[in-house]
Amino acid sequence: MGENFPQPLLFLSRCAALVASSWELAVPRRKDSPQSARRTQREILQHFSANSVASVVSFILACSFAALCILVAALGLGSAHKFYAWPHPETSAKTECASVSSALLGHSVGFCVVFPPGYEASSNKRYPTLYFLHGLFEDEHSWIDRGGEQIWESLTDQGELTNFIVVLPAGGRTFYVNSQDGQERYEDFFIQELVPEIDRRYRTLAVAGERGISGTSMGGYGALHLAMRHPEVFGSASAHSAALLPKFPNPLPTEGRWGFYARVLQGPFGSPLNESYWEANSPLTLAEHPERFAQLALYFDCGDHDRYGFEEGAELLDHILSQKGFPHEYALRPGGHGWDYLHQYLPFSLRFHSKLFMQAQKANLRTHAKGETR
């Protein structure tokens, strides 16, 4: 309880205690009159005339100190929203969850949108957009509920990120691809229906350079897959702990880690698992032809103790891209897999996208300026 008490008020309360002590020194209570809790101005003046000048000085200092305390506390309260998330319409983020009806899928798909501070204050300003894809067994609320929004908002408040919209679509267990049997065309839905609908509903900057995609685990796989296949839609992509697997062993084990992979991949990649379809969609395969996404800015990382062994795939992706001479950012970081890992390293991808968004905005301003001078 005490840890959440606003610092300016705590400071003011301590000042009040010190002022009270100074008042007691300047105007002590009369010992011969216990009832005189209140004293008249005349009594106070009699006390000052009967005591030394030091009492007067103490009283003046106490009053001056009280005024200083009030001023400092007022300044603190004026900026308290930045540190204590007190409500402020121009600096607090807003979240909205809704759904989009998909003709391609034959059902609605949920999503959440997190708006940057100031979005509601202006009706004309448009913003870059970052799509963040959740992992397996998660949903569109996970980034909000498990700390992603808090990290993003904190970095934004500190001025480390430019303002951008975050879109959190529900991906189920699709791996964000079109299923092998053609029943769940999630990739087509994402590119043909979701992104255009987000641009229609919200004030986005609907160009590739102002649109990024990121994700974790299954979502990391999806972010790399979608960005490599659709560079006309996304100008930047990042992934944490992406579900990147080298070639499957033959025969494929039914137990252990590989047995788990086979079971969770059967939905989007065929039942029984169609390894050819998996490999055709894998970012490791797509990375063999970087000329197809030549302008894509790419960042990815993975923990060196990932419990699913995804660091092997991350290392392989880094190796393939390096051999092809494709510029990218990669880091093998201390840690495991999941939100404990993300709490440490999500800021790296957020800063990566923010930097690219700012570069795109500056380039657009230069282009407009040149056009106006002609």
Explained architecture:
This protein has 374 residues and is α/β, with parallel strands linked by helices. It has 2 domains: 2-84; 94-369, Rossmann fold, CATH 3.40.50. The protein is 47% helix and 13% strand. It has an 8-stranded mixed beta sheet with strand order 1-2-4-3-5-6-7-8, sandwiched between helices. Helix 1 (7-26) packs antiparallel against helix 3 and helix 6 crosses helix 13 (339-373). The termini are far apart. The relative contact order is 0.09. Mean pLDDT is 81; it is low at 1-63 and 65-90.
Do you know the CATH topology of the largest domain?
Rossmann fold
* Total number of domains: 2
Order of helices and strands: HHHHEEEHHEHEHEHHHEHEH
Helical residue percent band: 40-55%
The CATH class of the largest domain is identified as: Alpha Beta
Mean pLDDT score, rounded?
81
Q: Which percent band covers the strand fraction? A: 5-15%
DSSP, total strands: 8
Terminal Cα span: 62 Å
Characterize the overall form: globular
Quick summary:
The chain has helices at residues 7-26, 41-50, 53-78, 80-84, 142-145, 148-157, 186-201, 218-229, 256-269, 275-281, 283-286, 310-323, 339-373, and strands at 94-102, 107-115, 129-133, 165-169, 211-215, 236-240, 297-303, 329-333.
List the helices and strands and how they pair.
Blueprint (H helix, E strand, L loop, with lengths): L6 H20 L14 H10 L2 H26 L1 H5 L9 E9 L4 E9 L13 E5 L8 H4 L2 H10 L7 E5 L16 H16 L9 E5 L2 H12 L6 E5 L15 H14 L5 H7 L1 H4 L10 E7 L6 H14 L5 E5 L5 H35 L1
Parallel strand pairs: 3-4, 3-5, 5-6, 6-7, 7-8
Antiparallel strand pairs: 1-2, 2-4
Helix pairs in contact: 1-3, 6-13
